[in-house]
TrEMBL record:
SUPFAM superfamilies: Complement control module/SCR domain. It comes from Austrofundulus limnaeus (Annual killifish). This is Sushi, von Willebrand factor type A, EGF and pentraxin domain-containing protein 1. It is found in: Virion. It holds the Pfam family Sushi.
């Protein structure tokens, strides 16, 4: 507390020394930081006076956007600073942003990419995050011509498996069947061409079929014969009366 004095003159008190209110000094502002409205007179603010701050469009306010001068002559909160936002990265040919009409991103915000044109796929990260101070996370991606992994029919596998949904041009994938009793019908291998297309369709996996079972003299099959039987399908024989089965048919 700051003191003062008063003098008694003719039965009245006369104030001779006043206690001036403490003021808060407005010091130098951080680079790019601005005060909303008019700054305090003589760069000093009285108790209770508030200051509000802002940064240009390409910058974020780091810290409190408002502070108040206290009776102690101190500011309630320290003055903020301006942190540079991340601007639109320089995009290589064919790479596009999924967001349009945005030029600056604040710390913690992300951008996502896509490729222009059929058959082009992102090589690298599909997303980058603004780390603050104008810096992006990771390395900017590129677009490469690739072949999309074809849709496979039941029981067809790619062996060895491939990662992702597309492969580079020149890459060859090999097919196999899920079960040993199935066989490949069609291309056992296909290659990704320069135009992003495969040099042939993927195969199918089918089981070999058998015709009607061979006849048994003095006997027959237990069930009525079918014109075709799939791999591993079995038939059972039986003999006519007074005959016994010996060996195979």
């Amino acid at each position: 507390m700051h003191g003062g004095s008063a003098t008694c003159v003719d039965n009245n008190w006369i104030k001779t020394v006043e206690c001036p209110a403490l003021s808060c000094e407005v010091g130098a502002l951080a680079t790019h930081l601005k005060i909303k409205g008019f700054p305090p007179k003589d760069n000093r603010a009285t108790a209770g006076q508030k200051l509000k701050f802002f940064c240009p469009e390409a910058y974020d306010v780091e810290g409190s956007e408002e502070t108040e001068c206290l009776e102690t002559g101190q500011w309630r909160d320290p003055f903020p600073t301006c942190s540079e936002k991340c601007s639109t990265p320089e995009m290589p040919d064919g790479l596009l942003l999924t967001q349009s009409g945005v030029f600056y991103w604040s710390k913690g915000e992300s951008v996502t990419f896509k490729c222009r044109g059929r058959g082009y796929f992102i090589e690298g990260n599909e997303k980058m995050e603004c780390l603050g101070n104008g810096q992006w996370s990771g390395v900017l991606s590129t677009c490469e011509k690739k072949c999309q992994i074809p849709t496979l029919t039941e029981n067809v596998l790619i062996h060895p498996p491939v990662e992702g949904h597309a492969v580079r041009t020149g890459h060859t994938i090999t097919f196999a069947c899920r079960h040993a009793w199935l066989s490949i019908h069609g291309n056992s291998k296909i290659q990704c061409l320069e135009d992003g297309q495969w040099n042939g369709p993927p195969p199918t996996c089918e089981g070999s079929v058998c015709g009607e079972p061979p006849p048994l003299e003095n006997g027959d099959t237990v069930e009525i014969n079918k014109p075709e039987y799939e791999t591993n399908e079995r038939v059972e024989y039986r003999c006519q009366d007074r005959y016994l089965i010996q060996g195979g048919p």
